[in-house]
Description:
- This protein starts with a helix and ends in a 14-residue tail after the last helix.
- The chain is an alpha+beta fold.
- β5 and β6 (102-105) form a beta hairpin.
- The protein has helices spanning 2-19, 68-74, 77-80, 119-125; strands at 24-28, 34-38, 47-49, 83-84, 91-94, 102-105, 114-117.
- The strands form two sheets. A four-stranded mixed β-sheet has the order 1-2-7-4. A three-stranded antiparallel β-sheet has the order 3-6-5, with no helix packed on it.
Amino acid sequence: MLFKIILFLFLLIIIFEYLIPQKTHIKKSKINGTGLFASKNFEVGDIILENVFPNKPNNKQLFNPIKKADFDKYISYEGTQVNHCTYYHNSDLHSEDFKLFQLIATQKIKKGSEITANYDKINQKMPFIAKSQKHYQSC
């Protein structure tokens, strides 16, 4: 019985890692620490992350500034890995109802490229997203 469970888990790992293509991966960034990178090519308008805040109650709207603890609890790990880039950002956060937030490609993104966003522009339309820190403005 234990052998069957181990075999089943092994098959699940193979299915998720190799048969279901991943859109993104995380690795060391030249911008800051680690970053989110494209595991496939993205076209303008493609959804990179389906739900940046999957741990938020579905009916809860996010708009006004919220407690940092709540923000940290709601955001996906992948969402935390999107680095700020002032000039050469290639994605944006989009929401039609302030309940579902999707990360969308704003430029073509080649497989292997870092996915970046301009925190300052996002903050203007979604005040609960913090502005960039001064020392990360050069990208």
